[in-house]
Design goal:
- By secondary structure, the protein is α+β, with helices and mostly antiparallel strands.
- An eight-stranded antiparallel beta sheet has the order 1-2-3-4-8-7-6-5, with helices on one face.
- Strand 6 and strand 7 form a beta hairpin.
Length: about 180
């Protein structure tokens, strides 16, 4: 009669450690949509505490479009000093992240727009929308992980650009 072999203790230890690791890191669970934004390290699951840990306590607030608060910070991006905006909903979920910049000249704004647009096109392909209006131009990238909107406004008094990432819950679903 053959004797049954028992699994070596180290094998069981490794298996137990692997299971513990998967449990601790939510192995196999969907973490939800990914925020892959070049001007912030936050994710769509980030909290207000995460935001203040990353950006600091030097913020201003106003009412968010989504029922919560919008937190603004001075933020440099692409060598330009602008403002980053974190918009939360009434349940304190991050719904939008945007970087805004006001330029001195239309040419400066166009150069910045072309740089940001080129890097976005390189990463995500061509925009699904082109504003191409007089004095205003921009694009929208419709994505499963949330839309990206790059817009400009050029008037006699103002020359501004906004580069925004929207949570999928507030993104346009018609173009998908």
């Amino acid at each position: 009669m053959k004797k049954k072999r028992k699994a070596p203790k180290y094998f069981l230890s490794v298996l137990a450690a692997l299971l513990l690791f998967c449990f601790m890191t939510a192995c196999g669970q969907d973490e939800g949509p990914v925020l892959d934004c070049p001007f912030t390290e936050l994710t769509w699951n980030s909290t207000i505490d995460d935001m203040t840990a990353a950006e600091g306590e030097n913020y201003s607030t106003y009412d968010s479009l989504y029922g919560g608060l919008c937190y603004t910070y001075p933020k440099e991006y692409e060598g330009c000093s602008g403002t980053v905006k974190y918009m939360f909903d009434a349940e304190d979920r991050l719904m939008s992240v945007a970087w805004a910049y006001s330029a001195e000249t239309a040419e400066e704004l166009e150069t910045l727009y072309n740089s940001i647009s080129a890097s976005t096109v390189e990463k995500y392909g061509e925009s699904g929308y082109d504003a191409n209006g007089v004095g205003n131009y921009g694009g929208v990238w419709y994505r499963e992980n949330g839309d990206i909107i790059l817009t400009t406004m050029v008037t006699t008094e103002n020359k501004a650009l906004q580069y925004a990432y929207l949570h999928p819950l507030v993104s346009n679903t018609e173009e998908r």
